[in-house]
């Protein structure tokens, strides 16, 4: 249990060496989708975007946060799917699995509202090239904010927070998953880097108040601090929606450089990831070796308790 942690007993496992990824260079697609109130249309629309991205050579396709439903607390229970039941109870999930299998690509399936027993989660599913579910991340940090006169959003009104950080070994490298507000918590990204992630994907729907200030800043910070790739994917902006998304899906490289980005309209970004840059950046700027573990440490509570 996390609460059993005693600092004086902590023996932090060493950071995982960066494993050679299964591919060095590949194309990633970020599908910045328009989302409507029509769930069936959203599913068909996403499927078409995934097919087009695969047609352009993308081996990894990333979708936005909550792409099958409006991003609204009242909509989450209505559009939620029972992923464990599958089939008719989970049409968005089934479409993603089938698309990954038919197109032989890896899919980071954005997120959808998930129903599990009495709980609802904001959940990202990762599918391998055979359509298998390889990982499932339930948003760990719920988006509860109140900026007077600007925006109030309380995900915790309907959603439950996930409990597990998620790193998935895919055919296109080791990928850490976070959902939107998760990007604000640098410890999660540090944890993924310590576990040897090559890339962190954050499906996200930032808002019109924080988006202009923080969206790119946070992505570049997570990438530069941890010397890995960061990919974000937002829904396209719909100014008539109850929640207006900032858009600006982006790919950032391990030097903190924006490699590809867009504005707020519906589009698919296709860009190249070159994992050989990870070693190169870390050689030129050897932060991992220069860390002062004698003064401060990241504690991976999951790994620590697994060792006991
Ligand atoms: N869907 C979200 O988690 C939005 C996060 C956001 O806008 C932020 O400022 O953080």
TrEMBL record:
GO terms for biological process: asparagine metabolic process; glutamine metabolic process; oxaloacetate metabolic process. Transmembrane segments: none annotated. Keywords: Hydrolase. GO terms for molecular function: omega-amidase activity. Pfam families: CN_hydrolase. PANTHER family: NITRILASE-RELATED, OMEGA-AMIDASE NIT2. This is Omega-amidase,chloroplastic.
